[in-house]
Specification:
By secondary structure, the chain is of the alpha+beta class. It has two domains: 90 residues, SH3 type barrels (Roll), CATH 2.30.30; 289 residues, Fumarylacetoacetate hydrolase, domain 2. Helix content is 15%, strand content 28%. The strands form seven sheets. Strands 6, 7, 8, 13, 14, 16, 17 and 22 form an eight-stranded mixed beta sheet that branches. The longest helix has 16 residues. The radius of gyration is 21 Å and the shape is globular. The model has no long low-confidence stretch (mean pLDDT 97).
Amino acid sequence: MIIDIPENSDFSIHNIPFGIFSTQNRSKRAGVAIGDHILDLVAVAKLGVFDFDSKVLEREDLNDFILLGKATTSKVRKDIQQWLQEDTSVLAGKPELFVLQSEAQMHMPVCVGDYTDFYSSIEHATNVGKMFRDPENALLPNWKHIPVGYHGRASSIVISGTPIHRPQGQTLPKDATTPVFGPSQRLDFELEMGFVVGKNTEMGESVSTDQAEEYIFGLVLFNDWSARDIQKWEYVPLGPFLAKNFASSISPWIVTLDALEPFRVQGPAQNPKVLPYLEYEGKKNYDIQLEVRIRPEGGEETLVCHSNFKYMYWNMAQQLAHHTINGCNVHVGDMMASGTISGQDEQSYGSMLELAWMGTKPITLNNGAERKFIHDGDTVTMRGYAQKDDIRVGFGEVATKVLPPK
């Protein structure tokens, strides 16, 4: 190996995720994470080793690089893996090709044209149904028949490290008949994964579950912030609006489906049987360990949740197939989030709404403070990785500090 990779690094030789970075001396550009370093793909391209127009690597997002197709992007990843392991490769003896991650600034990896959020964890949907509707009939009649989703706001998706402001809006206080305006008192995180569309479709065209993975470039960690009190007042009849569109946060490195291949697992049994266009073959879920920690202003982190992407009832192939079955077109860079990822035990619930059960069971942080929802000054950090034997592929983190309303 021509560069040291720390043990248990998220960015092992098995990973090679893509992102956009800059430094004091390097403009925004494409790179890959390896250990504690970033390999500058623009600098590598100057060695004449790529067989495509390398100007796409100089762009401020990865969209045009992804648009080249998986035949190209997968080859770049495999070539880099090989070069990193050969003492006489084109990368050997060229430290100028590498940048310490600690000395770089990360940027949005893609230009997100459209964003869709799903609602695909049966555990999460059941918990929410019990709290807000009927404990005996928590799921709505359509939930086991379609991957429920809504179109979100692409403009407010931000990279890890970008602080967000507490949203304001209308809420209906308990026992009141008239709404009031003010800052949300129930700001919440939602532990999700997001996938990046890697191939365009035309209006009228549909993507089957068999084809879906050709259209998925890779995944990021996704925190779909929610204002629960605003949401409760506004969501009937048209669903989430101001309670969701103020911010979503993502991790900076896109981990490719190629890197996640060893971690495929069978998803939960789907009963009743889905309609033919949602049927699929093979293992479409992924065993990715996830966690959420909260750090109050000036304090230390407290682990509040550990979950796993494998729990998802509806998988990504089904989500994309359903999204396009009516002929809706998708574009490279579009982002689709999984919906909150909750497991069966209380420690695996993927939101404060569930962890503190709508404020009735406060969580105690390491400093003794309690949390029913997220406070101003809190930093919420999500991390994720997949591990099988000695193969580890991680996502790094998405960390976001909450500021008071502007």
